[in-house]
Design brief:
The chain is α/β, with parallel strands linked by helices and about 130 residues long. The protein has helices at about 15-30, 70-75, 90-95, 110-120, and strands spanning about 10-15, 35-40, 55-60, 60, 65, 80-85, 100-105. The strands form two sheets. The protein has a five-stranded parallel β-sheet with strand order 2-1-3-6-7, sandwiched between helices. Strands 4-5 form a two-stranded antiparallel ribbon. Strand 6 (about 80-85), helix 3 and strand 7 (about 100-105) form a beta-alpha-beta unit. The protein is globular, with a radius of gyration of 13 Å.
Length: about 130
């Protein structure tokens, strides 16, 4: 049985270094071909994202700055993504992104991998 993230190129937008490394390892352990970590939006702004990545894991806040505008860009480019955040007040997210899954920190690796796989159409909803 192939890994859920087999061959995917994943962008991880996370400002906490150790969490970013954990997410990278999780993705690789589940078959991701490439994982790129960005700790600030400016590291990847200006680039076309959909030709470079197949999916993204996005923290809601990077150094106190909201990533919702960036998430809107991902959606407009048609790039599947999930939010992974310690912020549990998700009313704004549910209103703006009702179809995007929020995996709350601390999360289990299985929950995050399943969420990314679902976003990419690689797993069926439970």
């Amino acid at each position: 049985m192939p890994a859920l993230l087999d061959g995917l190129r994943i962008l991880v937008l996370e400002d906490e270094f150790l969490i970013a490394l954990d997410i990278e390892q999780l993705c690789r352990d589940h078959g991701a071909a490439e994982v790129t970590i960005a700790r600030e939006i400016t590291e990847i702004n200006g680039e076309a994202l959909s030709p470079r990545f197949d999916a993204a894991v996005v923290d809601l806040m990077l150094a106190g700055v909201s990533t919702l505008d960036f998430a809107a860009r991902l959606r407009s480019e048609g790039l599947p993504f999930v939010f992974a955040s310690g912020y549990s007040d998700s009313d704004e997210i549910k209103d703006a992104f009702p179809d995007i899954r929020l995996v709350t920190k601390p999360f289990s690796g299985d929950d995050l991998v399943e969420a990314v796989a679902l976003a990419c159409g690689r797993a069926a909803p439970a």
